[in-house]
Amino acid sequence: MSSNIRFIYLIEPISHLIPHVQKPKIPIKPNEKLVWTGMVLFIYLIYSQIPLYGIYKTQDADPLHYMRIILASSKGTLAELGITPIITASLIFGLLRSIRVIAVDPNVKQDRFLFEQTTKFVAIIMTIGQAFAYVKGGMYGPVNLIGFFNSILLIVQLVIGGIIIIILDEILSKEYGLISGISLFVATNISENLMWKCFSPFTVASERGIEYEGSIIAFFHFLITKKNKLEALRLAFFRRSSPNILQLLSTLAITLLIIYLWRFKTNVKITSKNAPGATHNLPIKLFYSSTTPIIVINMVISHLYVISQILYRRYGSSFIIKLLGTWAEKNGEQVATGGIVYFVTPPKDFFEFITRPLKSITYIIFILYFSGWFTQTMVELTGKGPLDLAKALKNQGFFLEGIRENEKSIYERLEKLIPTVSFLSGMVIAALQILADLIGATGSGTGILLLVSTILQVQENTEEKSFKGNVNVLLEE
Length: 477
Description:
By secondary structure, this protein is mainly alpha-helical. The protein is built from 20 helices and 7 strands. It has 3 domains: 200 residues, Preprotein translocase SecY subunit (Orthogonal Bundle), CATH 1.10.3370.10; 40 residues, no CATH class; 176 residues, Preprotein translocase SecY subunit (Orthogonal Bundle), CATH 1.10.3370.10. The strands form 3 sheets. The chain has a 3-stranded antiparallel β-sheet, covered by helices on one side. A two-stranded antiparallel ribbon has the order 1-2. It has a two-stranded antiparallel sheet with strand order 5-6. The radius of gyration is 24 Å and the shape is globular. It starts with 5 loop residues before the first helix and ends with a helix. The N terminus and C terminus are likely disordered.
């Protein structure tokens, strides 16, 4: 055993104290997976509705309102921290493993177990640190007004809620569920937000009087109450104060586009030593990396928002702090008005895109390139790169048609394909996000993309899959 592998063994004395979910000893049937997924979802929904005790009522704007849906976070509840600790810990240890700072032998059961426990331990530490930062940073009101006892109580509640979400995610990830907990929680938050904007029965005040918030309810209300039906349709389709029907149709159009692009793939012909002469397709999809990178990118940006707001609130006169970002409150929300964070904030709609061209062009260039590069990097970190795939194919007796039967030849062929596909995948996902935001789709472009892709993944996972020619199975087995 090499010296650098000893790092994960540092956690061995306390590994039994860290919560751990065992993989099922026998395969779980799809119906049973559906039950497990439903149970985990039910628990998450309960947690996301239980308010934190000890919050001091404050009118401060929510610094995370842009990103809460993507991070599966619910303000002021036990699900406040969402999936941030899980994603952050997994990303850090995936990076350390990929650059060989941490060596893990996937063929050694103890190595795999200790790597999982170490990642989970760091996620728990991050949960504690984030809970402390939220309370100390005044997320729930000034600490001197909350009091010492309530501050400790808030931290304990946040930590317990964060650990429960980590365990729920692990349950589904250990083959008990149809999809990972991260995807499920994010998709649930997005669905809830989308349904609320369509069917909210609450009323809001506008320059025209009292209107229903939900776009569909408002549509029928306008048709019933307005004598001028053309005016009623105009309001229902184009009102800007609340969700409208045009945004709903834009959401439908983006959904159909995502479904269409989801099927794009290129097939690599492979043959097996066990069945000479028979060929199979190894599909390399356009969405090869799934949507995990876009979650991570939004999480990184959300951290940048929080750090910038805290620093600007305390040291707003500093040039360096202003360079990072300046903020102002508009309609109860903190909005970036300058600095780096201003230029990495997406335009709210097409009107803002046209009226602020410098910001819009800078954001588009940044998000397209960064998404492409980061997706390409994530493919390598998650074991889907050409080298890992070449090893998986060789170990399972497969080789590419028309080339020599060795790992180097397989790698050289895949090296020409997978990095290009993964970079293009990241750019396409970012472009869909930008398009959805520009045409005013209900919910954020990222949210729609994550929701539709999650549903399509569930559909694929519930279908009976053959071992032959499936990239994910090849990598996992």
